[in-house]
Design goal:
Blueprint lengths: L2 H11 L5 E2 L8 E3 L16 E4 L3 E2 L7 E4 L22 H11 L5 H6 L19 E2 L16 E2 L19 E2 L33 E3 L3 E3 L2 E2 L3 E3 H6 L3 E4 L5 E6 L6 E3 L1 H5 L1 H5 L5 H15 L5 H18 L4 H5 L7 H6 L7 H8 L11 H57 L4 H27 L11 H7 L7
Parallel strand pairs: 8-11
Antiparallel strand pairs: 1-6, 2-3, 3-5, 4-7, 9-12, 10-11, 13-14, 14-15
């Protein structure tokens, strides 16, 4: 037999299988082909696969993991495994195979399945599902360094785009909000679905780090302002029962917000614009207001004192260079503001903040001006209401005057015609006119309720008789 024919027959024997690749969702997992080996190294051995949240510009997942059968040798001792029995890269898997199975054909192993996993959310995904072959010319162990990472929400500052080593914990698989085409676990708010901002240390959002299973956290994020408006942050009574906490709508876990707000002052020291500083501190006040916890109350007092200094004209430079001791450092040194005995003792030992000196007469003058403006606005409003009432009441009086004159004329006409069909017709008109007058008199009596003031007059009267639109 010809040598060429022998080589061709050998190549056909090792021809890679035809794989039908279906797009999968972020954080999805599965067993066996097409994304994990089957019957390797022994018949019946099946590998599991899983993908992460990040995708490349080609529409394939950047993060993908392989879980080998537990009976394979050297899994617990190999240095290629970061956690448990998951291979996180092709290089680590190749090293393991060469170490544990020196006689195995590594290229044939990788050719038996597809390492590339297409995403349902890939913006550059090739049209539909097509058969994919692994050619001998491709090295399945070589990564394509030209791939571009893409955030599902289109956020170029998304945390998933940062090239950081894999953490020991991963976000939970989610087929609810994360199944939406433009929702990203890393940067989309679970309440408004808009992207979060990492500006000023990411103070404006909170991340749920509740552990939902071994090595898996919730990982969903939300704007603090959105959570406050939805009564899912701050101090909320009722069945939720929050006390300076955050309630995650995705996993129902609660997160203490005191440590989060505790970072605000350090963040503000790096901010150059006073308006942004006040915005950050005011957000902290909204989170802490109403809390019954000692740590939250002390922290709230400190933030409010800082805001007062700003409003009294203290510059940012003087504010941060102030030698007056504050309680911020004590929070960090006492368990991030938690209500433990050491933290409470630390708060009790803190030297109170000296009151900021201010001009008492100037403050009283300011209050006097505010009250004067309020009374002026009240007088104008009352005068406007008086004018409206005057016009409408006099108009109703004129309406009744016209009806009375018509009634007198009709009665006079009827007295001159004592019999006949005309007299009957005039009697009918007189009765109708008297009934009309009774209705208009009743209307006038209802309108006279404005004597109590518009604020105490029924809404229907104001809308029907005075043509005023009253908001809910």
């Amino acid at each position: 037999m010809d040598t060429t024919d022998t080589n061709d027959q050998s190549n056909r024997d090792v021809e890679p299988p035809r794989l039908l690749l279906r797009p999968v969702r972020p954080m999805e997992s599965g067993v066996g082909l097409p994304y994990a080996p089957e019957n390797w190294p022994m018949p019946g051995d099946t590998w599991r696969w899983k993908v992460g949240p990040r995708i490349t510009g080609k529409g394939t997942f950047l993060d993908r993991y392989l879980y080998p059968p537990k009976h394979l040798p050297g899994l617990s001792s190999t240095e290629t495994m970061r956690k448990g029995t998951a291979f996180r890269s092709r290089l680590s898997l190749e090293r393991y195979i060469r170490l544990a199975f020196p006689d195995a054909d590594v290229h044939k192993f990788f050719a038996s399945f597809s390492w590339a996993v297409p995403s349902t959310d890939g913006i550059c995904m090739k049209r539909s599902i097509m058969p994919v072959y692994t050619s001998d010319g491709e090295d399945p162990m070589q990564d394509n360094v030209s791939d571009v990472l893409v955030c599902k929400a289109g956020n170029d500052k998304c945390g998933s785009l940062l090239m950081m080593p894999p953490s020991e914990t991963e976000p939970m698989p989610c087929d609810i909000c994360c199944s939406e085409p433009n929702f990203c676990t890393y940067c989309s708010c679970t309440l408004c679905c808009k992207s979060i901002s990492v500006e000023h240390g990411g103070y404006s959002y909170v991340k749920c780090e509740a552990v939902v299973s071994e090595g898996i956290i919730c990982g969903h994020v939300a704007h603090v302002n959105c959570a406050l408006r939805a009564y899912m942050a701050g101090t909320v009574g009722g069945s939720i029962g929050l006390d300076a906490e955050y309630y995650c709508r995705r996993c129902d876990a609660k997160k203490d917000l005191v440590p989060h707000v505790n970072r605000f002052l350090e963040v503000c020291k790096t901010v150059e614009y006073q308006g942004d500083v006040e915005k950050i501190l005011n957000l902290g006040i909204c989170v802490l207001r109403g809390s019954q916890r000692v740590s939250a109350k002390e922290l709230l007092n400190c933030i409010e004192s800082t805001v007062i200094k700003l409003k009294c004209g203290t510059s940012l430079e003087d504010l941060w260079n102030d030698d007056t001791p504050t309680i911020w450092s004590d929070f960090s040194e006492s368990g991030e503001g938690k209500d433990n005995d050491d933290a409470l003792q630390s708060l009790q030992d803190v030297t109170p903040i000296e009151p900021m000196p201010f001009n008492h007469e100037a403050e009283m003058h300011k209050l006097e001006e505010e009250i004067r403006e309020v009374l002026k606005a009240l007088r104008e409003a009352q005068e406007s209401e008086y004018q409206i009432a005057e016009v409408r009441l006099h108009a109703q009086k004129e309406c009744l005057g016209d009806l009375y004159r018509q009634l007198e004329e009709e009665k006079s006409e009827m007295s001159r015609r004592v019999s006949g069909s005309d007299a009957d017709s005039l009697m009918t008109n007189v009765l109708k006119r008297m009934d009309q007058i009774r209705k208009e008199v009743t209307k006038l009596k209802e309108m006279e309720e404005v004597a109590k003031g518009f604020g105490r007059t029924r809404r229907g009267i104001l809308e029907e008789y005075f043509h005023l639109t009253i908001e809910e």
